[in-house]
């Protein structure tokens, strides 16, 4: 979860998640901070007709690009192996553009 309080930015991550999920969630929430300043998911869900899915998709794509930056596939490595090595959970491989 990402939130701001008193002009400070916080990302809270459940400690019970696996390390790849923790890394991905951190990158995903950082994306919200960088790409969607001032937009609250809770506000979108409760008080607007905006589609929060668009912002979530953008945050997932940002996270994948961040986690794969300066890393290249090894010879013979599949796309799935590469993404897993970069701490991207298999459920999110489809967001690679």
Strands across the major sheet, in which order? 1-2
Question: Whole-number radius of gyration?
Answer: 15 Å
The coarse overall form would be: elongated
Distance from first to last alpha carbon: 24 Å
SS summary, helix count: 4
- Topology, number of strands: 2
Q: Per DSSP, what share of the residues sits in E-state strands of 2 or more residues?
A: 5-15%
Extract low-pLDDT stretches.
none
Q: Considering DSSP H and I runs of 4 or more, what fraction of the residues is helical? A: 40-55%
Q: In sequence order, what are the helices and strands, one letter per element?
A: EEHHHH
Please tell me the overall pLDDT: 81
User: Which structural class fits the helix and strand makeup?
Assistant: mainly alpha
How would a textbook summarize the main sheet? 2 strands, antiparallel
How many structural units, i.e. domains?
1
Architecture blueprint of SSEs:
Blueprint: E1 2-5, E2 8-11, H1 19-35, H2 41-47, H3 52-68, H4 79-85
Antiparallel strand pairs: 1-2
Helix pairs in contact: 1-3
